Amino acid sequence: MRTACSVRRRVLLAAALAVVCHAPAIKAGGDIRKGGSSVGRVENDGSIRIRGTVVGRFEKSGAIRIRGTVVGRIESGGSIRKGGSTVGRVESNGNVRAGGTVVGKIESNGNVRKKGTVIGSARGILPARAAALFFFGFVKF
Questions:
Q1: For residues 35 and 43, which has the higher predicted lDDT (pLDDT)?
Q2: Where do the structural domains in the chain lie, given as residue ranges?
Q3: How many angstroms separate the CA atoms of 95 and 107, rounded?
Q4: Is residue 104 predicted with pLDDT exceeding 60?
Q5: To 5 degrees, how large is the angle CA 126–CA 132–CA 136?
C-alpha cells in the first residue's frame, strides 16, 4: 500500500527527471590550442588548466588569479589590466590592441591571430580571456 508521501516523492522525482532531460546542455569549457596541439582548457568555473595542472583562474569579478595571487583584471569594456596598468583591450570586432596598436585578433571561430598569422585557438573562451592568455603573458604555455 502506497502512502501519500511515497506517491508525492515519485511525482517530484519524475518532474525533476523531466526538467533535467530537457535542460539545455552545459558548455564544457574552452580548449586552448597552440601550434596545432591542445595545451590546456578554461573550465566552466573559470579555472585555467595548462598541461593538466590548474595554474590559475578567471573570476566572475574580472580578476585573474595565477597560483592564488591576483595578477590582473578584465574590465567590462574589454580592457585588460596587469599589475594595475592597462596592457591592452579587446574590441567588439575581436581586434586586440596594446598601446593603441592592433597586435592581433580573436576571431569568432576562436582562432587567435598575431600579425595576421594564426598562432593558436581558444574555442569557447571569451575573447578578453583569450587575449589575456595569448597576448599579455598571464600564463606560460
A1: 43
A2: 29-134
A3: 8
A4: yes
A5: 155
